[in-house]
Amino acid sequence: MKKITKKILLFSLVFLVGCSSTTFIYNRLDFLLPWYLESYVDLNQEQRKNLNELLEPFFEWHREEELPKYSEIIGDLELLLDEKIELSSIESITYDVEQAWFRIEDEMILWAIPMTRDLSQEQIDEFLQTIQTKTLQSEKKYLVRNLQTYQNDNYKRIRKNLRRFIGGMNKDQLDLINAASKEMIRVDGHWINNRKALIENLKLIFKRDDGWELALTNITHRDDSVSDNYRKTYSHNIKVNERLFVEILNSRTEKQDKKLRSMLLRYKTDINNLIAQK
């Protein structure tokens, strides 16, 4: 059961990241992944056992309610491929994928709350120190880049993601990616600042005073501490990506179309197989 449920969520995260340009910007809860938790907190044997028990209803919810929605998203995209793709259609799919990610965030918090109740103060301090260290490492890694390096990294990332679904691209398509990469607004500074604000928020929450559980449920996409600049930059970059996807998909060759349909079918088959496993 543990092997199957881990596979379900791993596949789902790959699917969501692969289908959306949103999560690479807005993913703020990576430290809550269950099998990733111990890279932040040293759990004892009893806590590991409790964590596995807490995850069972999460995976049951995800298998029964979320995986069928992923299959529907793929089906919607498959239908779009039979005609000229409009921007509004891609916006609708982006919204569905984004909402799917937000639902995962919400459910992760639900299982994290009882786990957090059981952590000692020493474990809480260890957790906070670790995410501070990782944030500092990210700051040193990303903020040293100049604008050209940032744009080149965008280009490489987008090209890699698209190649996974449609294969090699021609010069005109690569030029579209290059133009989109330059149009995107730099977001890494906003991300680092938002991460620091999140850590400060967690420091207050993890004092575990009255009302801390409710405060913890609000650190996801509903968090009011997320800056307006971060939200506006996020929204702008999403629009850039959506327009790019429309142009790329409408210019795809017969070979690219065949690969894309094959990839979508493979995803849908994998999802249906995961739904069927008990």
Summarize the structure in words:
The protein is an all-alpha fold and 278 residues long. The protein has one domain. It is built from eleven helices and no strands. It has helices spanning 2-19, 23-26, 45-80, 87-117, 121-142, 147-166, 171-183, 188-205, 212-217, 228-250, 254-276. Helix 3 packs across helix 11, helix 5 (121-142) runs antiparallel to helix 8 and helix 6 crosses helix 7. The longest helix has 36 residues, at 45-80. Residues 1-35 have low confidence and may be disordered.
Defining traits:
disordered N terminus; mainly alpha; 278 residues; 0% strand
Number of strands: 0
N-to-C series of helices and strands: HHHHHHHHHHH
Rg computed from alpha carbons, rounded to a whole number of angstroms = 20 Å
Residue share in β-strands? under 5%
- What's the shape? globular
Number of domains: 1
The secondary structure category is mainly alpha
Counted by DSSP, the helix tally is 11
Which percent bin holds the helix content?
over 70%
What can be said about the biggest beta sheet? none
- Give the mean pLDDT: 81
Enumerate the spans where pLDDT stays under 50 for 5 or more consecutive residues. Answer: 1-35
Taking the alpha carbons of the first and last residues, their distance comes to 7 Å
